[in-house]
Give the backbone structure.
Amino acid sequence: MTDFNKLNRRDFLSISGMAGLSTLVASAVGVNFGMVQVAEAAAGKGKVTPFRFAILTDAHLFSHVDHKFDEMLVKAVNDCNKMKPQPDFVLYCGDIAQNGTPDQLEKGKRILSKLKMPIHFIPGEHDWYLDMGEAWRGNFGSPTWSFDHKGVHFIGMNSIIVRDFWTAAGMSAKERMDVMEMLESPIAGPWGVREEQLTWLKKDVKNLASDTPVVVFTHSPLWDYYPRWNFQTEDAPEIREILFRFERVMSFHGHVHIKRFTTKSAICPRLERFPLLGLGLIRMCN
Ligand SMILES: [Fe+2]
Ligand SMILES: [Fe+2]
């Protein structure tokens, strides 16, 4: 485990901040995994320009007016806007809504529209299973995307796709959502990004040089923390396989509502902050 107190400018990425922005939370990479050398190499080639981005996740907004979770999201937005220097952009890691209703998703969009910087979204299960992502897509666009920013390749994917358990059972949309809201559901099977997104991912990274830093965002972790609660992604091994050739890969996710930093092989998953909303500030160093 990395010693989070020993960050320096040679770290490729560091993570700090969260609601108040004063706490050093975690280093995303560490000497144990060779990332210090990677950062120096990146700086030497002039590929990565230092910048910051922030992560928000798991607001779980209810339909009630002035619910306390609204307040937490408003505070996170204000914190982001007050950062100096400001993050270049924000990434939202899923579960904006509690029950996936259009009003909850629209409320999230409204609050997050106050951010002074661009924001990118991926969905969580609480956003998706009432209408199979229709309202989410209407508000936030495609759940699968990538972009390059100052030498780093960012990827977002929808990791909460389950096999159809509802049609044969004759479930209503609400019953389907209720099943997916359960933390330990005996009905819904494991989650995944599935074939279509794996094919997209292969194509997306095909022409990238292996020394391009890659940062991947999914709602569920790309490592098996606790499969019974879907603290996992069924086809994460395939994702890791596709990304394995890259020298520097980091994975961020929401869903688990606790903060954890782990380093495993080529990917370093970090879990978001308990209880409901995580905010991470990431500083790219050279
Ligand atoms: Fe969540
Ligand atoms: Fe979730």
About this structure: The chain has one domain: 15-284. Confidence is low (pLDDT under 50) at residues 1-12, 14-44, 263-281. The longest helix spans residues 68-82.
